Amino acid sequence: MRLIFVGFGTVGQGLAELLIEKKDLLSSMYGLEPVVVGISDEMKGSVLDPEGIDLLKALDLVKAEKLLCDMDVGKYDGSALDMIRDADADVMLEATYTNIKTGEPATSHIKAALEKKVHVVTTNKGPLALHYHELAQKAEAKGVQFLFEGTVMSGTPLINLLRETLAGSTIKEIKGILNGTTNYILTRMEEGLSYGDALKKAQELGYAEAVPDADVLGWDALAKVTILAKVVYGAKVNPFDYPCQGITKITATAIEEAKGRGKRFKLIGKVWSEKGIAKAAVAPEEVDISHPLASVMGATNAVTITTDTLGNVTIVGPGAGRKETGYSMLIDLIKIASAKQI
Amino acid sequence: MRLIFVGFGTVGQGLAELLIEKKDLLSSMYGLEPVVVGISDEMKGSVLDPEGIDLLKALDLVKAEKLLCDMDVGKYDGSALDMIRDADADVMLEATYTNIKTGEPATSHIKAALEKKVHVVTTNKGPLALHYHELAQKAEAKGVQFLFEGTVMSGTPLINLLRETLAGSTIKEIKGILNGTTNYILTRMEEGLSYGDALKKAQELGYAEAVPDADVLGWDALAKVTILAKVVYGAKVNPFDYPCQGITKITATAIEEAKGRGKRFKLIGKVWSEKGIAKAAVAPEEVDISHPLASVMGATNAVTITTDTLGNVTIVGPGAGRKETGYSMLIDLIKIASAKQI
């Protein structure tokens, strides 16, 4: 299976490490023999080699903060779109940074790959939240797969659970903690830190960015519930069509008072169907301390799925991370390999 | 897809109800067009009709505590094994009662069906805990599927998660609450009931049987960890090879004292790999109140899977129930239908 990486940040590198670490297992168990023929990254430079790139070397260069074009062979000057056009690949791995307002440049990358009948695996929320239906239709028309397990809960297999494992069930509601950064901040605030100090701590740990808006204002969770609304209910909406409230207005006092009532604040993303119409919302909720979601602390994510067949099923797992999100792409690659030997 | 039910108790009836309720969905989404050609039940009588049995009528008879042989057509006098031989079926649904010591009569039913190249779906723990490898090998040799999602956590898709959804991961440990009855009793004891009163309450609600040994001595959880040890790690063992301790020695005082230390008793089933050897055990553990398993109350089940790719992933859901366990068989039927149109 011939792969190109578009975006070679932590997620792409996480996958590359797994491909090296699990080489023998992937080959023997799933017939997956990956050959990386191209890596394109705006910051780190690009390399294209039909003979296959030495991934270990590429990772070493990147870790040493050198450029990929310092590889001995395959130096490539073109853009990501040029590489999608030039490379002879079976799968494009799209892991550039998410832009939730435009979905670019990822959406253009994905369209170009699908157009060329190249399977697409992505962890990028922008194209999904904004253009899911268009992209899924294009993939179907072209007879290739368009997979995105990593867009919600990183490698924790929520998308798989909803689309395949719970086959035959009607999904009544999906509700949970979809953003680890805000959950970490709320956890630390309950331990006594102020909002400012908890945010600072989250930034130090790399959970929150310097400009933390996407997390603390709820936009990241909003993108995820929008993806779920589209994928599960076929909703034709944009992220900002749904009500969204972050955690910036929650005070230490409010948290303390909730605690006294046996409650705990969580930033809850919710998607449900009301008379056939998909609804969604993001807002802080006071969750009863005995509710499964209440015990989910720190940077962990958790989602409760309400079905007609099983009642509630809850899945708890990582919502971010280098290896964890890299792994989401590996799940999708295994799926493509299982469907068709490439 | 032509089906026979062997065993038509609550689980079989639960599936029958789902097949009626979800007829259109199953046909349109999964191309699954089930025709039940036989039902064999030791207590309720048997019916065999190649033209297809009216499931609604069969359910009505059973609910009215009448015999299946009161159906207008298809009265059948043979045994379950006779029916497996006589029926022209694609899939046998095995849902007779579990006997964890002998695995019978289910194991004989399954062998007979596989021998005849009939796919098998079962919720029966006995054959799995005792003869998994032999049965799986026979299924493979005959080119048919042998599926058993319902044997652990009923329809909560733990088996699927372990075997497919977490593809490419190394499973380091599987640990959890696998028996709802004992979890319910422990929950009620924490609320102040004595062991005897809590057990009585569980019996009244139908969670515990008149002779509650299989639950309270840990045997049911033991059968489940044995199944996981065999399926995930290929262990070649019998259930009673592993250490097993139930909840009968836990006193109200011990529960109260644990509470004071921020702990909660849970009956924990555990499977892990130690230097390539599968280990397993069932015993009560004092779980920290902040651990995800601690918040799992009542008859709910929960399992934490420790992987090399995602760290811990926890799934929480029902572990028993008419509809819930019936649904586990529907998941398996959809899988068979998706693999091959019958």
Describe the model.
2 copies of one chain form a homodimer. With 342 residues, the first copy, chain A, is α/β, with parallel strands linked by helices. Chain A contains 13 helices and 12 strands. Chain A has helices spanning 10-21, 23-30, 55-63, 80-86, 106-115, 125-142, 158-165, 180-190, 195-204, 213-216, 219-233, 252-260, 322-339, and strands spanning 2-6, 35-41, 45-48, 75-76, 91-94, 119-122, 146-147, 171-177, 263-274, 277-288, 300-307, 311-318. Chain A has a 7-stranded mixed beta sheet, sandwiched between helices. In chain A, strands 10-9-8-11-12 form a 5-stranded antiparallel beta sheet. In chain A, α4 runs parallel beside α5 (106-115). Chain A starts with a strand and ends with a helix. The mean pLDDT of chain A is 94. The A-B interface holds A 18, 22, 25-26, 29-30, 154-157, 160-161, 164-169, 290-292, 294-297, 309-318, 323-324, 327, 330-331, 334-335 and B 18, 22, 25-26, 29-30, 154-157, 160-161, 164-169, 290-292, 294-297, 309-318, 323-324, 327, 330-331, 334-335. β12 (311-318) of chain A pairs antiparallel with β12 (311-318) of chain B.
